[in-house]
Design brief:
CATH architecture: 3-Layer(aba) Sandwich
CATH class: Alpha Beta
Number of helices: 3
Structural class: alpha+beta
Number of strands: 10
Largest sheet: 8 strands, antiparallel
Order of helices and strands: HEHEEEEEEEEHE
Strand order of the largest sheet: 1-3-4-5-9-8-7-6
Radius of gyration: 29 Å
Number of domains: 1
Distance between the termini: 85 Å
CATH topology: Protein Transport Mog1p, Chain A
Helix content: 10-25%
């Protein structure tokens, strides 16, 4: 009985697989008209609660000043290398600003977001150090110390008491990352940080 059921199943599978094969001569086949795509107007789907905000071009100081509460520490670089344009993303009362040249050979990433998770260091020439910066101990990492314009970052907690963020901790952490900049250019950007009015 079991063998019979398997044979019936195998026959059905074989015949079903052959059903899509066209055995008519090529001359007898007629081309079907091409399918025409139609568009049905529909309502724009609502943004999901987890959707990320759209980055905005323009003056970061103006965008951050208008959108980030004054109770939060608001810092931005006052200097970046020539030819770099900013794009600002505002979210949950915080901000991210990315400055990049046209080809993205130079890029600066700055944020006040808590708990930034930098990419892992994979080079045997990676350098990591603690240093004083803006009155605080900061972590400074160079991904490849043998390359003058290697990716690097600096992260620190700005001194003072700040409001509690979405994770229940004071949100006074800042993160500055760059690639394509020399150490001198990187620290010129870092040292130019100023309060947004």
């Amino acid at each position: 009985m079991r063998t019979m059921a398997l044979m019936v199943l195998a026959s059905a599978t074989l015949l079903g697989g052959c059903a899509g094969i066209d055995t008519a001569p090529a001359a007898a086949r007629t081309a079907s008209p091409p399918a025409v795509a139609t568009t049905t107007p529909s309502a724009r789907p609502a943004a999901s609660p987890g959707a990320r905000p759209t980055p905005a071009a323009g003056d970061p100081a103006s965008l951050v000043g208008r959108s980030v509460p004054a109770s939060r520490q608001r810092l931005l670089p006052g200097w970046t290398p020539a030819g770099m344009a900013p794009v600002t993303t505002l979210e949950n009362g915080g901000y991210i600003v990315v400055y990049a040249d046209d080809l993205h050979t130079k890029e600066v990433y700055f944020t006040d977001e808590f708990g930034v998770n930098p990419p892992p260091q994979t080079s045997p020439h990676a350098v990591s150090a603690m240093r004083q910066f803006r009155g605080a101990r900061a972590t400074y990492v160079i991904y490849d110390g043998s390359a003058p314009t290697s990716q690097r970052y600096l992260t620190w907690d700005e001194p003072g008491q700040w409001p509690t963020g979405e994770y229940g901790m004071p949100t006074n952490q800042f993160y500055l990352e760059a690639h394509g900049l020399t150490e001198s250019e990187f620290f010129r950007v870092a040292d130019s940080l100023q309060l947004v009015a």
